[in-house]
């Protein structure tokens, strides 16, 4: 795994809660994320993982609390005090978001090359030849052969679509990437290869990432640190190996012991 720069966090989360009416989504979450660090959010269905991720990625307005992000100029900005345009700009440049369902993160009726190239154009690249060259390079990095560049993702398998979504997100060299169950819909052998690929890319690029998963094996493979959620609360947090090898909270112990091999 890549080195983590512990000097200054990239993201600071303070007292974040989200209520849906009376129902709790997530409660009083605080943590810091450092450059190059991969954080896994694990927990059973309904525990609040997606709610938390969406509040961090400005896809959902929190009810209480602050999320601060360190911009490229070194200044921390409260994400929810930015204008909508500034947030959208961050999403396009500094951040990526990998959806569980690739069709939520891809344009299914434009070519694979355009799916990747579009993100480059959004950050100002205008030279057609260069866009195509970079897109081809990225398809290769996610193991999609160059002769599929003009195919639409609806002609791709589930695993290929997910790899294309990853290429589309990483092509602009973001500093932070959010992922919600990135291997969720795939069968086991496809999952394993995709995880290997993701791990390599994240390490090579020194990316910070927040990965939601209900699968402890995914957390083990990808993350440095993890947070365990239950009923909207973080009930345990720590280095991934420590949490999985020596869980402290009874619920985490149960979760770990219910998995034969992590
Ligand atoms: N739009 C919504 N309106 C009302 N309640 C919601 C909404 N979205 C989520 N919730 C509730 O918030 C809680 C947390 O849901 P969330 O989707 O964050 O869980 P999750 O951990 O991502 O689950 P899963 O593993 O099934 O995706 C649940 O009780 C859920 O019913
Ligand atoms: Mg979810």
Unreliable stretches:
none
Mean pLDDT value: 93
What's the total number of strands?
10
Counting DSSP H or I runs of 4 or more residues, the number of helices is 10
> Globular, elongated, flat, extended or rod-shaped: what is the shape?
globular
| Termini gap | 18 Å
Helix/strand-derived category reads: alpha/beta
Each distinct ligand? adenosine-5'-triphosphate, magnesium ion
User: Any idea what the radius of gyration is?
Assistant: 18 Å
Helix content: 25-40%
Strand order of the largest sheet: 6-7-8-3-9-10
The major pleated sheet works out as: 6 strands, mixed
List SSEs in N-to-C order: EEEHEEHEHHHHEHEHEEHH
Proportion in β-strands: 15-25%
Organism: Pseudochrobactrum kiredjianiae
Domain ABC transporter: 11-256
Protein name: Phosphonate C-P lyase system protein PhnK
InterPro entries: AAA+_ATPase, ABC_transporter-like_ATP-bd, ABC_transporter-like_CS, P-loop_NTPase, PhnK
């Amino acid at each position: 795994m890549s080195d983590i720069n512990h000097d200054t966090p990239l993201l600071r989360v303070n007292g974040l809660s989200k209520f849906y009416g009376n129902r709790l989504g997530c409660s009083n979450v605080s943590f810091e994320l450092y450059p190059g660090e991969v954080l896994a959010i694990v927990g059973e269905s309904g525990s609040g993982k997606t709610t938390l991720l969406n509040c961090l990625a400005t896809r959902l307005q929190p009810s209480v609390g602050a999320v601060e992000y360190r911009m490229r100029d070194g200044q921390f900005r409260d994400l929810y005090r930015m204008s909508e345009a500034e947030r959208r700009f961050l999403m396009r440049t500094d951040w990526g978001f990998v959806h569980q369902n690739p069709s939520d993160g891809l344009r299914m009726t434009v070519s694979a090359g355009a799916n990747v190239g579009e993100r480059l154009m959004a950050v100002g690249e205008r030279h057609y030849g260069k866009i195509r060259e970079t897109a081809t390079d990225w398809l290769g990095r996610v193991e999609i052969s160059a002769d599929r560049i003009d195919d639409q993702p609806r002609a791709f398998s589930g695993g290929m679509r997910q790899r294309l979504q990853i290429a589309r997100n990483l092509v602009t060299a973001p500093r932070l990437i959010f992922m919600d169950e990135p291997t969720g819909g795939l069968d086991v052998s496809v999952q394993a290869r995709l995880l290997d690929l993701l791990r390599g890319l994240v390490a090579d690029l020194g990316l910070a990432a927040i990965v939601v998963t209900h699968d402890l094996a995914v957390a083990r493979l990808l993350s440095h640190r993890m947070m365990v959620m239950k009923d909207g609360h973080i009930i345990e947090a720590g280095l991934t190996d420590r949490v999985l090898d020596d869980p402290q909270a009874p619920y985490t112990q149960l979760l770990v012991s219910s998995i034969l091999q992590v």
